[in-house]
Amino acid sequence: MKRALVIGGEGQVGWEMQRVLHPFMQLVVPSPGELDLAHPRAAGQAVLALAPDVILNCAAYTAVDRAEQEAALAQAINADAVHEMGRAAAALGVPIVHFSTDYVFPGDGRAPYREDDPVGPLSAYGHTKLAGELALAASGAAYWTFRTSWVYAARGRNFVKAIVARAQEAGSLRVVSDQRGSPTWARTLAEVIGGLLVVPLRGGRPLAEAVGATAGVYHLTSRGETSWYEFACFVVDQLAPRLNRPVTVTPIATHEFQTVAVRPAYSVLDTTRLRDTFGVALPHWQDAAHLCLADLPV
Ligand SMILES: NC(=O)c1ccc[n+]([C@@H]2O[C@H](COP(=O)([O-])OP(=O)(O)OC[C@H]3O[C@@H](n4cnc5c(N)ncnc54)[C@H](OP(=O)(O)O)[C@@H]3O)[C@@H](O)[C@H]2O)c1
């Protein structure tokens, strides 16, 4: 059985990646203590020593606001370590799968962003994620970088769980209505990427060849778009029978909810390249959220 190194296996995406891949591959899932991306050189050496058949980098510095104060640490984890892991992957001749974000875009567009549209991150987090994309592309590895957006899951820290907690505590929510994007269930990411890896695995095709033939950046999100406010309303409506009180959701403007980091106002991603290259269908965000919410312990 081929061995997959899943870095960040306890995160939202990493956890779902484990669920999807373990029938097909032997999984090696180091803890952040065992493989710490804050020390890029050592992380690269650890990858070399583990010598997996494929690397899935699901780890990242994802605290968007805190990154404004910890830009150097975010850069080490999100970019420098990605470069080292890319170099290790190239040296081993194995592919690497990586994730990036809609926050590489400035958000002043009105149509879904395509992969080659001009980037322009507004935040330190976005800058470090963009640096990671570029570092991986320059590393010489066979790679897929999947830019995704507004990730949530039944497990981990995310918007959906914050909304549910707030609804139960306070019964009223004020949610930003002038930022638009595509909520994406972590399991959707894992199922799509798992499917892409299983095809060559089943066919006996070397993974490095399969990834290398289609290497590059792809947008991978659910279909459709919404605002944080509409997403919160959807969550509250779906969970209404299970919530312990009536809940009101009030739309507010971004300037009424100050955050340390600036977010793009519009960050919907165009997924045509992914769908055309791999022939995958992506779920509408409401359908995916419906399935996830059914699993949410409330
Ligand atoms: N969440 C979103 O809305 C979103 C949107 C767009 C793109 N993305 C991208 O999608 C990918 C997965 O995100 P996610 O939401 O699954 O993130 P997550 O839930 O925050 O998980 C990140 C994982 O990385 C680990 N990690 C953090 N620092 C580390 C270090 N120094 N060394 C090793 N591991 C470390 C974390 O471990 P600890 O918990 O122990 O620190 C955690 O397991 C990331 O590349 C992210 O940038 C996420």
Q: Please, could you describe this protein's structure?
A:
- This protein has 298 residues and is an alpha/beta fold.
- The protein has a single domain, classed as Rossmann fold, CATH 3.40.50.
- It has helices at 12-21, 40-50, 71-92, 124-137, 159-170, 186-203, 207-213, 228-239, 272-278, 285-295; strands at 3-7, 26-28, 54-57, 96-101, 143-148, 151-152, 172-176, 180-181, 184-185, 216-219, 226-227, 248-252.
- It has a six-stranded parallel sheet, sandwiched between helices. It has a two-stranded parallel sheet with strand order 6-9.
- Helix 5 packs across helix 8.
- The longest helix has 22 residues, at 71-92.
- The radius of gyration is 19 Å and the shape is globular.
- The mean pLDDT is 97.
- Bound molecules: NADP nicotinamide-adenine-dinucleotide phosphate.
- The site of NADP nicotinamide-adenine-dinucleotide phosphate has 25 residues, from helix 1 and strand 4.
* CATH architectural label: 3-Layer(aba) Sandwich
Average pLDDT metric: 97
Write the CATH homologous superfamily. Answer: NAD(P)-binding Rossmann-like Domain
**H-E order:** EHEHEHEHEEHEEEHHEEHEHH
The level of helicity is 40-55%
Strand order of the largest sheet: 2-1-3-4-5-10
How many DSSP helices?
10
The counted number of beta strands is 12
